[in-house]
Task: structure prediction
Amino acid sequence: MANNTAQLQEKSHPMEDLLRMDRMPHIWCSGCGLGSAVTAFVEGLKKAGVSYDKTAIVSGIGCTGRVAGYLRLDSYHTTHGRAIPFATGLKLANRDLTVVVFSGDGDLFAIGGNHLIHAARRNVDINVICVNNFIYGMTGGQNAPTTPLGAYSSTAPFGNYEMPFNLVGLAAASGASYVARWTTMHARRLTDSIATAANKKGFCFIEIVSPCPTVFARKNNGGTGLDMLKEFQTRAIIDHDADPTTIPLNMDNEIVCGEFVNDDRPTFWENVQAGIKARLEKFANWEEMQSNSRKISHKKDRKYTSSRDSSIMRRNT
Amino acid sequence: MFKKSRLIGEYFMQGDIACAEGALAAGCRFFGGYPITPASEIAERMAMRLPLLRGVFIQYEDEIASIAGILGASWAGAKSMTATSGPGISLMTENIGLGMMMEAPCVVVNVQRGSPSTGLPTSWGQSDMMQARWGSHGDYGSISLVPNSPQEFFDLTITAFNFSEKYRLPVFIMADALVGHMTEKVVIPPVEELEIIDRKYTNKKPEDYLPYDYGKNLIPDFAKAGDGYRYHTTGLTHDKRGYPNMTFECQNELVPRLVNKIKNHVDDISLTEEYDIEGADVIVISYGITSRTILPAITMAKKKGIKIGYLRLKTVWPFPEEKIRKLSKKVAGFVVPEMNLGQISLEVERCAHNDSIVKLVPHPGGGIHKFEDVLHAIEEVAYGK
Result:
């Protein structure tokens, strides 16, 4: 194994310009879907033609949370669930950046669920890639908000009692501009989706259904990583016109994949700009009238300002 | 007028608004927050002012998002701030720890209310002082500044930004509802009279840059997102490259540095105000609004012929240990009135050791100290009862 790694490093790796080769080998298990997801991401970025220097990646905690650490971009490994608000701050403070959140289903939909729906509602110009493996991998296979009803996990020894979230449905209903779902089997289509999202403004959400042979499959007779991919192959169908709110995932139904939403809505920042412009045009000296701290030394000014203040109040009410 | 980044002149201004104006004067251009009494006025002022200065105001869905957001903005190179009260700080503490670990400069304002829990939303207290020091899990050095007037709220907000930029960490401003909601004269000096410090950006090339390489002052140089440095940063224990490193050696290099980068600069960070310290028998140590409400007691004590000194801490954390240690060898004792049931008095006790008496005058918040209580404590210490 070590020999193989050494050989790989001697030959240059095809994704060397975007991977931190000094951190290889990575910590993910054999058969995990994260390798495919990261490959699709790297290929997608190349395809999108975005500047690597102007691309930042933010992850939360978990197996997928480690992605940021392996990509040679400005990369931030934050706290559990808080990648999205962190990325929102990063993007709004430097709007030239392409900001991608790469995290898992537990991180984005359990502890970070609130942030996801609000970022989608605001339509902040960030991309969120969620690797959904139906379970908490890093902590040893506990129940996730995506674990199918009846599936076993280390905190659901009698089968999961809870209905799982339908991630694409939730993102679409919250107002995301772009929503897609693929499995790690759909390498080419996933790459295309990532490239589309990289060049698209607004909140873009991509769910990647991914095998977790080490904990999810082991507890649910899923076999190896390869077996899970075969299962994805038989269960997956592509239907771009499907209503994302009607295609939940469970143990044995069809995995409906596709690009379900691709809209152009004004982003948060566009709305901010439009709002300020409209307000300033309406009241040419609005900002002066809004003053609620008046200079002590200019009593005349103060009277003038306060009378204007109240006239504005009257006009508004 | 509101397109100006600084208002200049004399104003009749609320404390919270003075804080917002101080932040703008210091160059703050990103505010992320969530409404909470008694800090909402800061957010409201920022919402009105920032967009016209090409800054960003965002009202997040909760305080956890607010602190995460200002950390993100900080990495994009913006001077960023959030303002909240005790319950909000409790939600923020995990990410404050992230800010300490990642060394992201930003300012967190805590307009304290009576606590614990929801407590007294519209009333004041000083019971979050220990939380500011030890709130997030783990060891780290931290800075907390405590204003006692709207003017000082303005001034210390600028100082807080300067410290956060210089030492690369989230800095607390521990105001309280009384200072936040008080309206007083605030003088905003002209541009050239304010000292504004910006973080030190690296002058290294991207291939030579290590995000956590430090010099003698223990503070790494900064590189912001989008400048081609393509660095990694994490909340995990990390080496100079910013890569996770789960070894004792790495932990032993990183964590003591986070503590020492503040400890070694206490003289620079520690701001105090003192009167009649020389030759005093009794020294009253106070901070924040308490330092004003107890003044009658000091005047009375002076009239009674007690040799009384007055020491006010503008910087509570890092605690001025050396100063208190030296003083404790010269005086009979300290009187510490504070609006909690004993937090900073513990620090004073620790530093005074067995050299002098330390007398706490507690108050649960929601009112002010009776000056008789303070006077009584001063007399007890002075007459050695």
Notes: Chain B touches chain A through 58 residues (CB under 8 Å). The two ends of chain B are 59 Å apart (CA to CA). Chain B has a mean pLDDT of 95. Residues 99 and 170 of chain B are 6 Å apart (CA to CA).
